[in-house]
Amino acid sequence: MARPQAPDYADRRQAMLDSAAALYARHGYLGASISDLAAASGVSKSLLYHYFGSKEDILFELMIDHVEALQRMTNEVLAAPSDNPADRLAQLTRGFLRAYVGASDRHKVLVNDLDYLPAERRRQVVRVERELMDIVGDVLAAIGPHYGETRAERRASTMLYFGMINWTHTWYDVEGPLSVEALADRAIAIFLGRPAPTNAGQVSTKF
């Protein structure tokens, strides 16, 4: 007989995902067992299995939730009225970096452990990632032809852009002297070829 859902089912499930994200980020997917995941969440293995079918299910949910949150952010940026593609790139950059900092464990898991998903689930995650890259590529194309006159050139520029911001989790200290907004301003200035902000503690909105 199936176990009935508790009133706080969704909250407990999210808390388990948060604990799993921290564990996978610290030890890697292969370095964390179901027993480890249950212990990190403060529950029994049988209760963990009530919420998730397997380690793989947890890994997939962490990744698809993360990229879909990024997708929602980009859609919100694109839906906002703007006739300046450079401003759109700035808003996207701030959105990406805020998301990376706010969900740093999930982002680490996405970057480091994607290959551990089976092919079909990996394709679902990669499909969303490619949509994000296409959005940024279209914005770059709207800024100017110097980001690439061919699809291959624009894709190269897009990959360079994501290469610049996707690995900030390996070195950026959220408690350090540089705020995430100031970090985003610096990344925007570098990629757009504009002077970098002179005051790291201030958020610049003029480029």
UniProtKB/TrEMBL annotation:
Signal peptide: none annotated. Residues 33-52 bind DNA. The keyword DNA-binding applies. It comes from the Bacteria. SUPFAM superfamilies: Homeodomain-like (SSF46689), Tetracyclin repressor-like, C-terminal domain (SSF48498). Keywords: DNA-binding, Transcription, Transcription regulation. One of its GO terms (molecular function) is DNA-binding transcription factor activity. PANTHER family: HTH-TYPE TRANSCRIPTIONAL REGULATOR BETI, HTH-TYPE TRANSCRIPTIONAL REGULATOR RUTR. This is TetR family transcriptional regulator. It comes from Sphingopyxis witflariensis.
